[in-house]
Amino acid sequence: MASSLSQGIEAAKSGQMEQALAHLKDAIVEEPENADVWVWLAAIIEDEDKQTIFLKKALEIDPNNKPAQRGLAFIERKKYIPPKPGEKLSDYTKPIGVFKAEPAQFSVESTPQPAAESAVAAESAALSQPAEEPASTPAPEASPSRESTPSQTTPPASAPSAPSHKAWVDILIYGVILMAFVVIGILIGTTLLNVNIPFLTKPTPVLSVLPPSEGVFLLENGQYIEMQLSLNAPQTEEGIPSTAQTQPQVVINNQVIQLERLQFVDQEGKPVPFTTQPAENGTAILLPLETLNPGRYCLMFNLNAARGEALYWCLQIE
């Protein structure tokens, strides 16, 4: 004779839910430690709280019971994700086909009180696919593509490191230092021996004709025109030579005059830039560094700045 569990399963598969419930209640009495009884009982009822109790009872008996694990996972998932239309617990426990009647209403009074619920480790297991679903025809397995052999490239040869130029730099530095000492030695030697070296000293200007006497002269077309000496600035133009040259040459032939104390000023007393070049026989040539406008210009030698005393040699630019 078939067991109550087998009869309950057959009745559930045929859609006779009330009859299935009656057989499963008998199975609880006959096989209280059979996990499948509790799983099938949870599958044919709608009360979610009772489903949870029955599935946990099944896991107490058999912690590795896959249908019970899937059923609890489905119940947990429904708390966050609404089930699909027609989706029910029996899809994840024991597939019993399409029910032809409404699920049975389980009465607590007619069922022995289950043992205390225990926490089941499988409650948080991922929801798996329903058991015993018809297997779909497997797709033809694609032939594995032949792996292409990675091309082996020869790493480029590393470029040779640049040669160090330290030796050349040292030689250059030593050469510069040596040349500096040579030049310094030549300058000291020429100073002590009073020797002029052409490439180190400026050539001394050569006057074609020397001044006729001591004094200060305006050199005009090879001729010397004496510039009269006066104490302080002259008040008249008498004795002041004139020239059309805008950069006249003034020749100083006086050993007493100190060139570094000379000034070249215009008629308003403003300094005019100039340069002096020592010439032959102790003479010197004064040249203005800029083009002069018409007017009076004087070579001034201060005697006593506090008393305003100075010597003047003046010329007139026409």
Task: Explain what the structure shows.
There is one protein chain. The protein is of the alpha+beta class. The chain folds into three domains: 4-124, Serine Threonine Protein Phosphatase 5, Tetratricopeptide repeat (Alpha Horseshoe); 173-203; 215-317, Immunoglobulin-like, CATH 2.60.40. Helices cover 28% and strands 17% of the residues. It is built from six helices and ten strands; from the N terminus they run H-H-H-H-H-H-E-E-E-E-E-E-E-E-E-E. Helix 2 runs antiparallel to helix 3 (35-43) and helix 3 packs antiparallel against helix 4. The chain is rod-shaped. The chain starts with a helix and ends with a strand. Mean pLDDT is 78; it is low at 97-102 and 108-153.
Low-confidence stretches: 97-102, 108-153
Radius of gyration: 64 Å
CATH topology group of the largest domain: Serine Threonine Protein Phosphatase 5, Tetratricopeptide repeat
CATH class of the largest domain: Mainly Alpha
Task: Summarize the helix and strand pattern as letters.
Answer: HHHHHHEEEEEEEEEE
Average pLDDT works out at 78
Return the structural class. alpha+beta
Number of structural domains: 3
Output the number of helix runs. Answer: 6
Q: Based on Cα principal axes, name the global outline.
A: rod-shaped
Do you know the CATH architecture of the largest domain? Answer: Alpha Horseshoe
Outline the biggest β-sheet.
Answer: 5 strands, antiparallel
Strand content: 15-25%
Widest sheet, order of strands: 2-1-5-8-7
Topology of this structure?
Blueprint: H1 4-13, H2 17-30, H3 35-43, H4 48-61, H5 66-78, H6 166-193, E1 215-220, E2 223-226, E3 229-231, E4 242-243, E5 249-253, E6 262-266, E7 274-278, E8 284-288, E9 295-304, E10 309-317
Parallel strand pairs: 4-10
Antiparallel strand pairs: 1-2, 1-5, 3-10, 5-8, 6-9, 7-8, 9-10
